[in-house]
UniProtKB/TrEMBL annotation:
Organism, scientific name: Chryseolinea soli
Family: Belongs to the cytidylate kinase family. Type 1 subfamily.
Keywords noted in UniProt: ATP-binding, Cytoplasm, Kinase, Nucleotide-binding, Transferase
Name of the protein: Cytidylate kinase
Subcellular location: Cytoplasm
Any one GO molecular-function label of the UniProt entry: CMP kinase activity
Keyword Glycoprotein: no
Keyword Hydrolase: no
Major subcellular location class: cytoplasm
Pfam families named among the record's database cross-references: Cytidylate_kin
């Protein structure tokens, strides 16, 4: 089998990362969560009070930001910001509420896309995000565009947060998903959109296992 590049894009909280993680485990591929990278940048901006509208401050901050991934003892990919494990912190609502505005900044995107292309150079990767099939790897062997009903997405995300002991109102989760989708689809720099050659996967009535099986099946056909 040849090693391929799998791009998974779609709206917020559709199960992209859960699917991508499982698929990468099954295929023995590397999983790269590009949303985690934008979240790590956002966390840095918040903690260091970086003025988002000041290009000089943004450029300086980007030079000081080093994002890496390490595999935990539980075989999970975890995000590190300047050597610190930020996997939990980047999933909090504080970061979720600011990540889409930060992700509209051109300089931020240029820096992240460059790193993502480097990470995917070896192939044998599953990458999930918003612009993987359109901008990061327009030549990806398999492109999947995931979507699901708003309420289904919100329920799933709320349950995920509860499992991590974060109590959030369903209304707040819905509001956050709507806000992020709106900003992500309407921004000037690489907006979220379905690539022409992407296959659509609606996960509203599908279990995680079925989603994973479907993507693995599609991947095998490309190898
Ligand atoms: O994937 P996740 O929901 O964690 O992504 C968080 C946010 O990061 C998205 O709402 C989007 O604003 C931004 N993002 C992006 N491009 C990507 C991945 C994520 O702009 N490739």
């Amino acid at each position: 089998f040849r090693k391929i590049v799998i791009a998974i894009d779609g709206y917020s909280a559709c199960g992209k990362s859960s699917t991508a993680k499982e698929v990468s485990n099954i295929l023995g591929y590397r999983y790269i969560d590009t949303g985690a990278m934008y979240r790590a940048v956002t966390l840095y901006f918040l903690d260091h009070h970086v003025a988002m509208t000041n290009p000089k401050e943004v450029a300086r901050a980007l030079q000081d930001i080093h994002i890496t991934f390490k595999i935990s003892t539980k075989n999970k990919s975890e995000t590190y910001l300047n050597g610190l494990n930020v996997e939990k912190t980047i999933r909090t609502m504080r970061v979720s509420e600011m990540v889409s505005p930060v992700s509209t900044i051109k300089e931020v995107r240029v820096a992240m896309v460059e790193q993502q292309r480097r990470l995917g150079k070896e192939r044998g990767v599953v990458m999930d995000g918003r612009d993987i099939g359109t901008v990061v790897f327009p030549q990806a062997d398999l492109k999947v565009f995931m979507t699901a009903d708003l309420l289904t997405r919100a329920f799933r995300r709320q349950r995920e947060l509860l499992e991590k002991n974060q109590m959030v109102d369903l209304d707040d989760v819905v509001e956050n998903i709507l806000q992020r989708d709106k900003i992500d689809t309407t921004r000037k720099e690489s907006p979220l959109r379905q690539a022409d050659d992407a296959l659509v996967l609606d996960t509203t009535h599908v279990t995680l296992e079925e989603q994973v099986d479907e993507v693995v099946r599609l991947a095998l056909a490309k190898m």
